[in-house]
């Protein structure tokens, strides 16, 4: 709120300067255009809506906050006192009038206000005053301290003796021990740490800890590769078995009905993220039961189709970052073979710099839709650098061609595979849409011009889908140039460009008169058909996605933060 008020004051001062500029144009204040003044006034009005003229904490809100504070367990309060500043708690207590009895630790509120001394027997006082040599005894006596390794590693940075590091490896949460294994394993006593971790894994102790995401499948694979590099095969084998169990539970609904291909970038520009990219491509291939192809300026086929953690490690170790970037090279394989694919998942940094057969990816994909599979879709798992609104070269090129696609972003310098569950959630939507629209059949995938969840199906088309019929536009193996519309049809307004508001189904295709007892449908016009129209005939915009209903979220806004 303070930031909003400060911004409001700044805008008001700028608006005042514009008034002075109008009154005294010869003064040092520079004249501001009317368009700029209008923009400033609009921003001021929007910020004024956020500022509350009156307000306060009601008794109902105070009761809810008090109940929340009473539900916090004591070990979490200890963690808060050891790791985080206490000023926000003191401010909250002043506003809500919290009492010491509202917390599981009776000294928590006094510690937040800095009043009095902590009880000498309390864990907080003991942890703050203890020496590194006393740490093994404290970990044994205070189980809650075992959950605070993030505090201990800062409190005794680089000064933990071998006995303390061994105690942490034996007693701390296994997830923390695996995550910070290099710190505990380095130096004297490293073999004892290794044996302790291997014994805990062999005993079947669960890795996951509540409220954490360090044990997701992607992070486990990163740790597995690290232990392989360190030569710790015993620990790696246990993590591999655990990762296989986690991977067995990752199955996306509809993956067996939709045809999916994963295209992984292994060009030189992916040097920093090549390992993460290989893990991601191999994992998605296994979860989606998809064909996996890597590309630079040529095709790179993995030696094994990933089906488990061992296969993912094998593929990751053999992929190397080299040569130029040409995602069109991977797509050309499917275009040349006329192989219909419902969804292409492209794992890349989008630094496309080399064409294939004279075409970039967006051009070739438009051609693939027109000649092979008009309902094919693209999903981008991108390693990017830039502001949150940065699209990436590949998505921008697809957008220019009228192709809508979802995109999930990773930081190119520090890719974080803990975001993998969110990525799989977005892919589940894509695969589910492809399966619901008839994936796995000759016309699988989504509508050719729809691209995303806003594509609607007419009643007649839906009926034909259920009866197993397919329109000429959905025929994957035919050339759509034979389906050119007539001049009257080309000049008629497109039904997909209606104004938002009413969620009306697209009109079903008109019926031609029956000839020889057979009922034929009028060929559906697709964006790829416009190439053969005479210059005098107005053409539809290329592959413009249907306008979503009011209040719907646009497809470009569905990206998750990196």
From TrEMBL:
Transmembrane segments: none
Compositionally biased tracts (Pro residues): 535-549
Location of region: Disordered: 437-562
Domain of life: Eukaryota
Ranges of biased composition (kind: Gly residues): 437-453
Bias (Basic and acidic residues): 501-517
Residue stretches of biased makeup (Acidic residues): 553-562
Protein name: TROVE domain-containing protein
Organism annotation: Heterosigma akashiwo
């Amino acid at each position: 709120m303070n930031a909003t008020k400060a911004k409001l004051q700044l805008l008001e001062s700028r608006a005042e300067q514009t008034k002075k500029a109008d009154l005294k144009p010869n003064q040092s204040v520079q004249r501001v255009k009317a368009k700029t003044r209008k923009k400033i006034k609009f921003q001021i009005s929007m910020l004024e809506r956020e500022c509350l003229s009156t307000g306060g904490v009601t008794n109902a809100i105070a009761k809810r906050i008090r109940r929340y504070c009473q539900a916090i367990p004591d070990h979490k309060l200890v963690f808060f006192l050891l790791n985080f500043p206490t000023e926000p708690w003191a401010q909250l207590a002043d506003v809500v009038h919290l009492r010491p009895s509202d917390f599981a630790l009776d000294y928590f509120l006094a510690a937040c206000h800095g009043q009095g001394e902590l009880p000498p027997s309390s864990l907080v006082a003991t942890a703050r005053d203890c020496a590194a040599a006393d740490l093994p005894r404290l970990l044994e006596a205070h189980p809650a301290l075992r959950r605070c390794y993030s505090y201990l590693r800062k409190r005794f940075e680089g000064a933990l003796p071998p006995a303390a590091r061994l105690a942490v490896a034996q007693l701390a949460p296994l997830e923390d021990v695996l995550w910070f294994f290099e710190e505990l394993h380095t130096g004297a006593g490293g073999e004892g740490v290794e044996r302790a971790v291997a014994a805990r894994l062999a005993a079947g102790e669960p890795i996951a800890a509540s409220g954490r995401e360090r044990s997701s499948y992607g992070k486990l694979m990163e740790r597995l590769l690290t232990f392989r590099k360190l030569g710790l095969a015993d620990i790696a084998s246990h993590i591999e078995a655990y990762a296989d169990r986690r991977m067995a539970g990752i199955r996306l609904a509809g993956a067996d009905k939709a045809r999916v291909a994963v295209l992984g970038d292994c060009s030189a520009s992916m040097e920093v993220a090549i390992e993460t990219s290989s893990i991601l491509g191999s994992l998605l291939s296994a979860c989606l039961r998809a064909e996996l192809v890597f590309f630079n300026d040529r095709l790179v086929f993995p030696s094994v189709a990933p089906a488990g953690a061992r296969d993912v490690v094998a593929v990751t170790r053999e992929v190397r970052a080299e040569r130029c970037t040409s995602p069109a090279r991977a797509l050309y394989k499917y275009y040349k073979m006329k192989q219909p694919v419902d969804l292409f998942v492209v794992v890349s940094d989008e630094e496309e710099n080399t064409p294939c057969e004279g075409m970039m990816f967006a051009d070739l994909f438009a051609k693939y839709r027109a000649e092979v599979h008009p309902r094919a879709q693209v999903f981008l798992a991108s390693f990017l650098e830039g502001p949150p609104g940065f699209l990436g070269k590949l998505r921008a090129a697809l957008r220019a061609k009228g192709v809508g696609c979802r995109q999930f972003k990773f930081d190119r310098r520090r890719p974080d595979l803990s975001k993998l569950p969110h990525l799989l959630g977005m892919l589940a939507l894509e695969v589910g849409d492809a399966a619901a629209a008839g994936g796995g059949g000759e016309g699988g995938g989504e509508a050719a011009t729809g691209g995303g969840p806003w594509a609607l199906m007419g009643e007649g088309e839906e009926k034909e889908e259920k009866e197993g019929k397919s329109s000429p536009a959905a025929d994957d193996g035919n050339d759509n140039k034979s389906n050119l519309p007539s001049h009257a049809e080309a000049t008629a307004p497109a039904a997909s460009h209606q104004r938002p508001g009413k969620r009306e189904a697209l009109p079903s295709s008109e019926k031609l008169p029956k000839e020889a007892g057979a009922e034929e449908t009028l060929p559906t016009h697709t964006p790829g058909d416009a190439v053969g129209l005479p210059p005098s005939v107005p053409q539809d915009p290329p592959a413009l996605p249907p306008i979503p209903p009011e209040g719907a979220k646009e497809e470009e806004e569905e990206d998750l933060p990196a």
